[in-house]
Amino acid sequence: MDYASLRKLFMNIPQSFSFKFNDVTVKFPHETPYLAQKAIMSKAINAFIKNENALLESPTGTGKSLALLASALAYQEYIGHHPIIPPTKRDPYKHHNEELIIEDIESIADKVDSIVEPPPNQSPAFTTASQLFKYQNNNLNNNPSEISNDAKIIIENPPDDMIRCNVVLRRHNVPIWYTSRTHTQLKQLVGELKKLDYHPQMTILAARKRICLYKPVALSDNPDAECINAVAKKRCPYLFKKEIPPELRPYGRLEKFDLDDLMRVCEQKMLCPYLLSREMMKRADLVLCSYNFIMNPKVKGQMMLSILGVILIIDEAHNVEQVIRESISYDHDRAGLQYCVGHLNQCLSVQPNEDFQENIKIIRDLFSGYLRYIGAKSISMRARGHTEFTEMNNKAFFATLGVNKLTWPKIRVALDYAFVIINGGKLPIVGTPQKISMTIGHYLEQLYVVIAVCFKNNCKFINSFKFVLDLGDVPENDHLSALNLDPGCYFSSVADEVNTVVLSSGTLSPLPQMAGELATPFNVQLTASHVIKQEQLNIYTIGEGLDGTTLLATYQNLRDNRESIEKALANILIEILPSIPGGVLFFFPSHSVLSSALLTWRNFGLLERIDSIKKIFYEEPSLNSEMYTEYKMTIERQGGALLLGVCRGRMSEGIDFYDEQARSVIVFGIPYPPQNDREVKLKRQFNDERFDIEGLSGNEWYDAQAYRALFQATGRCIRHQKDYGTIILIDQRFSKQIHRFPQWMKPCFKVDVPVREMSVELAEFYFNMMNKFPPRTSLRKNNPTLICCSQCQNEIIDLDSLENIECIILNREGLNNTCHTNSEEAHIFIHQTDKHHLKSGISFGDVLFHNKECSGYQPVICQCGSIIGAVFKVGKLADVLNLEGIWFCTSRIVGTQGKVTQSLLSVFEVKRNFTIRPQGRGQQILCLTPND
């Protein structure tokens, strides 16, 4: 049996069932997928085959992420067996008749690139204009991350070849980029990927601040610049190597890894996770990243990401519009602009080089024009007593800056030249080039993106921004903001770049309006139903409190009746919470409304009464994961808890709540964006002005934003087919807005049931559901687990979940001798980075060396004297298998979740039985042998 086959056995490959859609065979982990999952796989594969875009809406809890992953990887495998390169939607030669001036600027930009010598293997602190030009236009295909024709091959025996190669060659012509909103969601996605019998070479991307292991860089204010500086001066101890660690390759022990796994491996091997992940990206079949990497052109350019011809999946895409608008908007203060002009004048005064003078004067004049515009408007506004001005003529604004179709190409070259200097690149300048401030880089980068968007496609999107001037208390504090109102101005270029873009979420409706907002055709669309039966969900609307208080969460009503409304909310909770088992989520429309309610409840003694029924947790803007973990553990140990959060917050969108963690979701108010917010008003006005063209009025956009946020919050309740719960909507408007809810939810509504009557119905509902779906009597992998000694019940280690635990029968004579176990003992593996969760009362014995194995073991001893496991202390073996952690004997420990205490073997299916021993004289060569 070859090495790859043994590794496959060792990896405990998941079971799969085959389904065929449009001649593409999908390997799926469940014998009977949900109807929603079948629909998603069918629609997605149809989009992949036809190179069309798709909007796929499926309720939270219907397994859409698993279905999307399976269908994309299946199509990639299908293409691998059919060696064709699907055409991209844009022909690289289609635009050869563009204006000559564009060809000239491309040539000049390439010349600038040719004289740049950036630090090796580093992405710049700022994007040069030519880089943004390259990574935004399909005419250019010189991205270093693009695979060459020689590398576009299908490897017949990928595991063997890939393990031996320093760089893993991409095995397929169509890479998959799967993006989601947060790294927490990506971590959950990796869990779904582990269920699938596909073995892509994957990578996961993250910013330096999130992934850097070198603390002086990770904790600095500007990690990108500090990283480049540390590498240049050889201070960083974490190395860059093109070789991919074996465990991160297909069929490796961590072939499907998240950020924590990547950082753990790199820390052990003293490698840079940031550079390693980027190197792996060059040949990856599957790339995972936050969709901010693609939807923010500055980040996309800095990271030098090319998505030409890829399949782009954007999961949890309901926020894409907002992410784009925020990423290409900016706010510039007058004092900062004055600093830029002064600093550039100083640079010009000491550097006589001709090229430097020509290019930096262009940048200086750009800022000067900016200041002239602000100065002229400021004088006029102050004379009239105005404090805010919105520019209605964008062409006139750019003309003041000296930017038009003829001057823009030269300005772009000058920007490129400036970015080279800011990034520390070398230019042919006699003497030491004058350093340009990083502050100027920030201003230039933001300004460049706006101008580039406005002037692309013959100025098609020049009115996609509103320029707003706010006067400060003194002229130096004046601010000019560029507010993007049309996310399609950028998204359309992303869609043109890829083969297929798939947007997926539980809340995309109305789909035609979403497509219109993104200025992109989506010929494949789906709105799926939920997987539960109607009896598993009750939805209540409440329009008044127990004392008759009208419950209406409009700005004016909250301002006039805030205290009485907040007291009514507390009394409703006191009435209904005893009828609801497990966890309850209560979402407010904003943090300010939540904070005010807490204050009122505290002042009137209501908070203490609620807390006596269910312990209260509440979401803060600076949320940390410890609160969420404590909430889950409280439910396990006390049977219930109440979590107060906000719509559009992390708890309402970015976190999964399973079963008892969210038996009921309560929402107060309809979470409309603040109607007096300037950007909201401008956006509504913008949509009204183009209503006849795009078909989405300002009011329709405003309503869509509110209900998408509402549906995201209510989606926390139902997570799978056997789940059940209630949704309680508190606001008198809800009873007349049922038509806005998804079709599958409408039969579940119970409108304006009196609170006390509802409390009785709730108790009956949960009694019936608990009989139909009995509470679990076994441990679950995704729940917090306390590991205890089976002899004395002493607490050993507290784990957030059992998801990443290894459990195998490992025949090592030294291990069995150290733990006094036999060869049939199963062990679970806890990685060394989890040791900080160890409880007191645990000690480590002396290292016991075993000559026969050339390895040593350190026993792990409970306070009762029982040896509960061991730590490997070996060289090559630990390095190859990444076994530097604790192996606990399953017969010596138990797991506890709430009232459930069981052997961990009830969670893990032990299928593999291996002897691992050194092979070869004087060497430590890995040999895996399955026991007969």
What is the topology?
Blueprint lengths: L2 H8 L6 E5 L2 E5 L6 H16 L3 E4 L6 H18 L18 H15 L14 H8 L21 H7 L11 E5 L2 H11 L8 E3 L3 H4 L3 H4 L4 H10 L26 H11 L3 H9 L4 E5 L1 H4 L1 H6 L8 E5 L4 H8 L2 E4 H17 L3 H31 L3 E3 L3 H8 L6 H15 L15 H18 L9 E6 L8 E6 L3 H10 L2 E6 L5 H7 L6 E4 L9 E6 L12 H22 L5 E7 L2 H13 L2 H8 L2 E3 L6 H14 L1 E7 L3 H4 L10 E5 L9 H12 L1 H4 L3 H17 L10 E6 L18 E2 L4 H18 L12 E5 L5 E5 L6 E6 L1 H7 L6 E6 L11 E2 L3 E3 L4 E7 L5 E7 L2 H6 L3 E5 L3 E5 L2 E3 L10 E7 L5 E6 L2
Helix pairs in contact: 2-3, 4-19, 16-17, 17-19, 19-20, 23-24, 23-25, 28-30
Output the structural class. alpha/beta
CATH superfamily of the largest domain: P-loop containing nucleotide triphosphate hydrolases
Strand content: 15-25%
Estimate nothing, just give the exact number of structural domains: 4
The main sheet comes to: 9 strands, mixed
Query: How much is the average pLDDT?
Result: 82
The name CATH uses for the topology of the largest domain is Rossmann fold
CATH architecture of the largest domain: 3-Layer(aba) Sandwich
Low-pLDDT residue intervals, each spanning 5 or more residues: 1-10, 85-121, 133-169, 876-882, 911-932
Number of extended strands:
33
Q: Span between N and C termini?
A: 13 Å
Number of helices: 33
Classified by CATH, the class of the largest domain is Alpha Beta
Globally, the shape reads globular
Helix content: 25-40%
CA radius of gyration is: 30 Å
Domain Helicase ATP-binding: 23-375
Protein name: Helicase
GO cellular component, one term: nucleus
GO biological process, one term: double-strand break repair involved in meiotic recombination
